[in-house]
Every structure is written in structure tokens, then in C-alpha cells.
């Protein structure tokens, strides 16, 4: 175990461990929650895998002092140094064995009374039995998907899918939003049948531990998911969680701040912001169609292309593309997303529909162009396009490719849809009200603080 002190804010009375799943979309919202709790006087131990711990610290080098109240800890993830630490399927299998004993040790030594564990790390619920710690779960996906997770055994029993994630019955599952059986998150998680089966069995087995959680903290808000939240009696929706610009965000890559200066030079409501999160991977055909589609749209664009977004594009071609679009389009490795989404120049958000990105888009009132990649992202797309009606779906052809013509047409359609823009602003206002003084999420945050102080 290694430890890097951020700062001890004096001697806070209450001590909480925060345990995210080792993926970007999980670390960021839990870091945002940690800042809220630190501001309330809690001392936070934030536990990453060693691999991600190093990435985060490198990404914030030369950015001045790191905020008070949080201490960053790291534990091995059970993988060999030569392994691909971004291989989620392989990573999941080794985490419990690698992390459980070190977590017990930290809790005992520091006399921690509360652990806030990512739902995707729900094996940590067993700590309640082994070291007597109290546990709250944190859902990094929607309340609807959390409710669907709890229904997974029944879906298998009813023959909708089997234990390997194969769809056996095409039907619409009546949740809000309605979910097609082909878009159940666990159907697309895992590159092989064996991995999908292992993932599904893990979900089912850990569901049985859920009663050990004293609360389920959700990065959502009551007004945006009322029906789904009604199915989760111990849910505390406290979102949308906002990344404060002066705080450590937990990014794995350094943010390119120059894109903000570029945005300042663009006309209001003209820029397409394109970002597909930390996990999506495009082959050469999909990548080039996207590139050509952005050019064909005739709009200025800001495109985030992280280092492992594609392995098939030749560097020479990509450099020529960036030179060709210079002045009209900007490509960066990673962006300060909330500052981008709040910028007056941004017209829409082309996104993979990860829940974190979805909540950020809602909070800033930005219309969506939806292009989900896997897991819960199809459910989130359904919310955007069918329930909130704040965006449009990018439809792939029979080869699974979103063509440049489709991109051009949907950009034009979305940016001409005043009704969609108006609904996006309506949801922005509701989201802002929820986290404001007296709002539903603000009240739930106060309830969480009171609960954690009972420890």
C-alpha cells in the first residue's frame, strides 16, 4: 500500500473511506462527492488501484496545491505489470482477492467507521461482516439501471436472457425508460461468452449482499428519474455532482486548457463538442466516418481523441486531418468537460451517453447527439431521446457504422430543433434547482452527512 497525502484539514471528527471502481467514469463522480464531504468536515481516504493512482497524480502535476481534506491511497489491482489494466473484464476478476485484505487493514488501523463503495465494487459489502464497518453504496449509473440490476435474476428466470447474456426473448422491459431486451447492460459487457457469464453471475451474487448497504447514493436527481427512484426505497439522489474547477477531479489524462481559449473565439451556440468517454474504442472505418462527418457538418467542432481511442489510424493521416481542419475544428487529448459544456459557444454534445457525461450535459442544458458504445449507455440514450426528449440518436448502418451523411443530417436536424433546445434548458433549470439551497438533491446531501456522522 502506498499513500500520498493531499492534506489533513486539521483534525476532522469523522473519517470516511471512498472506494471507486477503477474506471474514469467511476472515479470522477466519487471524487466530486468526496469534495462535498470534505467541505462538510469529513476526512476522506480515497482508495484507487496503484495504476490509476499514478495516472491521476501525473495528470495534476504543475497545477498548484491539491485540495484539503482528502488523502489518496493506492492498492494493487491483482494484475501483472505487463497486463492491460484497461481490460475491464480481466480487471474485475482479480480485484476482490487483491484489495480485500489491504482494505481491512486500512479500516482497522485508521478506525474508519464508514465506507462509501462503488456499486461495481459491491463485494466490499462483506467488510461489514469482517470488520464491522458501515457501508453506503454509490451508483455511478442511473437509478433505472440500478433497479434493472436488481431485476436481473427475474429476467433470467423469465427466459428474457440466459446466464451468459444471450437474448432469448425480444421484448420491452417496462421500466422508466422502457428498455429493449437487446439493450440490457450486461448483454454487451464482456468480449466472450465466458466473461459475460462471469459478469452476470457476479451481479447476481453481489445483489444478495445489497441489504448490508445502509443507503444507495445516486448521481441523479428526483425530478429526472421519479419512477425509477420510487423502486429504490433507500436511495439518496444527490446529483448532478459538479466538478469544481479549483478541485482535484480524478482525471486519468491531463486536461488541455487551450481548448477554452479556442472556444472563446467561436460564435455562441455553434460548436459541436465530441467526446466518447474513457472506454469507447473506434476502428478505422468508424473513426474516419466520424472525422469526415464533422467536416461535412460545416460546423466548428471540438473533438476529444484520447490516446487509446483508436489503434488503427495512421499517425500521418491523423496529423494531416488536424492540419486540414485547423481553424474550423480542434482536436485535443482530454478536455475540462464541465467547463466546455458550460461554454456559450457549445451548441450540442456528441456523446457515448455514459451516465456521468449525461448528467453533466443535463446540468448545462446542452442538447445531445447520442452514440452509445456499450453497457448502460443504451438505457441512457433512451432517457435522452424518448423520455426527456433533449437529443437525437445517431443511427448506424448494417455494418454498425455511423456514416458521415448521418452525422451531417442529425447535426442539422438537432441544431434546427428549437423544441429540443427549450427542453434542454428546462431540464437544466430543474437540475440546478435540485442541487441549490433547499433543492431535493441538496436536502438528500444533508441527510447523507447526518447519516455518516452517526458513525
Automatic annotation (TrEMBL):
Report the superkingdom from the record: Eukaryota
What protein family does this chain belong to?
Answer: Belongs to the UDP-glycosyltransferase family.
Q: Which CDD domains match?
A: GT1_Gtf-like
Query: Per UniProt, which keywords does this protein have?
Result: Transferase
Q: What is this protein called?
A: Glycosyltransferase
Xref: InterPro entries: UDP_glucos_trans
The UniProt record lists the keyword Coiled coil: no
MF (Gene Ontology): transferase activity
Which residue spans adopt a coiled-coil conformation according to this UniProt entry?
A: none
The record's listing under PANTHER family reads: GLUCOSYL/GLUCURONOSYL TRANSFERASES (PTHR11926), GLYCOSYLTRANSFERASE (PTHR11926:SF1511)
